[in-house]
């Protein structure tokens, strides 16, 4: 089934305990669509970049089967830029620089060929933009998934609360779940957040795995213990891309299939952190992905005597 992703395509400059980069390609929609490309062949992108965005990266999207008809190129503008430095624990980071550039007035135009997409991934952008996308869809998708962050909870909480009733799945991290719900217990937080609209909630816990909530049902997926983590940038977006890409490929939105999608999303995220930026996501093989999923299965399976 077809997937539409709306979000940012950007330049990042990163520094971790393992090294640093100059400008590399980043942005939520980049990670989401690259991860999803390993599952669904109907993979559509809506984003905006400046005239400084390299054609070879657009060619890379196309080589992964990503439809770039909805990628706006503002020739007289510059691409969104973010720079950050990670602490030694790799869980905390400092933002060093943010330049919105063409993202500052992003108008998400949905091409006619994208109308009718069954799955919609609203990447982390302003809630007002996310709602605008929904308003511009001629037909409601079968499943709408939204990612957001604490920044929008600080400056646009009313807008966020207006869009939450319109989505099916919300994905946030544990800090954001507590902030949105004003509850410390993640189980209590999940119940409150699901009352705000989304019937399904995913709480990402980074190196500690992910929780899936739907009604009274809960599923926990562990994170894979890796020998080396070079760069956690984009891991959450890669997770989301693997999750919704798997759902779109199977066209099954049951809770049982979402449990499988959580594992596939976690597997894709585990690849992402092994190199800087999106580098590890570019040339994965089906065998690598299958073997990584089996590692997750082995990690979490046991018998009761």
TrEMBL record:
<keyword id="KW-0808">Transferase</keyword>
<dbReference type="InterPro" id="IPR002173">
    <property type="entry name" value="Carboh/pur_kinase_PfkB_CS"/>
</dbReference>
<feature type="domain" description="Carbohydrate kinase PfkB">
    <location>
        <begin position="21"/>
        <end position="278"/>
    </location>
</feature>
<dbReference type="Pfam" id="PF00294">
    <property type="entry name" value="PfkB"/>
</dbReference>
<dbReference type="GO" id="GO:0005829">
    <property type="term" value="C:cytosol"/>
</dbReference>
<protein>
    <submittedName>
        <fullName>Sugar kinase</fullName>
    </submittedName>
</protein>
<keyword id="KW-0418">Kinase</keyword>
<dbReference type="GO" id="GO:0016301">
    <property type="term" value="F:kinase activity"/>
</dbReference>
<dbReference type="InterPro" id="IPR029056">
    <property type="entry name" value="Ribokinase-like"/>
</dbReference>
<dbReference type="InterPro" id="IPR011611">
    <property type="entry name" value="PfkB_dom"/>
</dbReference>
């Amino acid at each position: 089934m077809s997937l539409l992703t709306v979000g940012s395509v950007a330049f990042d400059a990163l520094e971790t305990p393992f090294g640093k980069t100059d400008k590399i390609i980043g942005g939520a929609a980049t990670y989401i669509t690259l991860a999803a490309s390993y599952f669904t062949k109907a993979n559509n992108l809506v984003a905006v970049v400046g005239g400084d965005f390299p054609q070879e990266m657009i060619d890379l999207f196309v080589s992964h089967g990503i439809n770039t008809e909805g990628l706006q190129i503002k020739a007289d503008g510059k691409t969104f830029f973010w720079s950050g430095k990670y602490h030694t624990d790799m869980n905390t980071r400092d933002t060093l620089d943010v330049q919105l550039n063409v993202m500052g007035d992003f108008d998400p135009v949905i091409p006619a060929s994208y109308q009718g997409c069954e799955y919609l991934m609203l990447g982390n952008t302003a809630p007002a933009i996310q709602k605008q996308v929904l308003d511009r869809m001629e037909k409601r998708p079968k499943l709408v998934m939204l990612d957001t962050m604490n920044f929008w909870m600080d400056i646009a909480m009313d807008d966020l609360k207006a869009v939450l009733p319109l989505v099916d799945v919300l994905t946030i991290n544990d800090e954001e779940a507590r902030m949105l719900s004003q509850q410390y217990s993640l189980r209590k937080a999940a119940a409150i957040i699901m009352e705000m609209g989304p019937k399904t909630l995913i709480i990402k816990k980074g190196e500690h795995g992910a929780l899936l909530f739907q009604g009274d049902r809960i599923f926990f997926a562990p994170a894979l213990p890796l020998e080396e983590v070079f760069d956690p940038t984009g891991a959450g977006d890669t997770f989301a891309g693997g999750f919704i890409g798997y759902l779109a490929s199977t066209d099954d939105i049951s809770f049982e299939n979402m449990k499988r999608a959580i594992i596939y999303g976690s597997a894709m995220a585990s690849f992402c952190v092994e190199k800087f930026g999106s580098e590890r996501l570019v040339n994965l093989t089906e065998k690598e992905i299958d073997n990584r999923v089996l590692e997750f299965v082995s990690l979490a399976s046991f018998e009761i005597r």
